[in-house]
Amino acid sequence: MAEMKPRVKVPATATKGEIIEIKTTINHDMESGQRKDKDGKVIPRKIINKFVCSLNGKEVFRSDWYTAVSANPYLSFFVKATESGNFDFAWSDDDGSVYKTSAPITVS
Amino acid sequence: MSDRALGRAALTRRQILIGTAGIGLMALPRWAQATPAEAQAAIAKITGGATPAAGRVTLRLPQIAENGNSVQFSVAVDSPMTEADYVKAIHVIAEENPFPEVATFYLSPANGKAEVTMRMRLAKTQTVRAVAVMADGKAFEAQQEVKVTIGGCGG
Question: Residues B87, B81: contact at Cβ < 8 Å?
């Protein structure tokens, strides 16, 4: 499987109280468990089932994903800029791996 | 989800489809798809049995999706997102996918705005439903039919 490469787009700066858009994507096959290989055997399910975004350690957005989420999942959502710091992003795989990245923001 | 064995003829056709179209929902046998009734049951579980009211939720989807492997959708909910009145969760359900739940998004006043955009797989032409649960427990819903040209195939 391809290397899981998370990418996020967070504005570098924001004014206090501004509602900012965060865009995220990660390389992942999101194998649904519905497909069969050429020998007719079911390819086991292996998807990212959870995504969490935190600001300075406090969760601000969470999402549960099921098999209908497309491969290389893209997700965008909004967060109110309250303080400077770091956004942490975590994608949890069925196999127990957690793929992480983070992005700083300066709020003035 | 069903683990029932597939017919040989369907398997062959599927192999061809996988070979030509690559990844996705190509391996869906028709009989493994959920029904609108099952989707309704999933929604009843979310809302605690209450029927979601119409309104407040805007679901943006293409009318026609050429590729069912990646259909972009946006859900926006009309809410001030304050401590007193905010959207707690948004559930997206595809009625006739093998597994109707697509994704659930958990929100709070920290979001400022209740809107999400994502991409999903649609096995075939069907109705997609978005249910928003508010902080006070009330539920609202929007739905739309999407015509899927090259969907989960198998059909």
Answer: yes
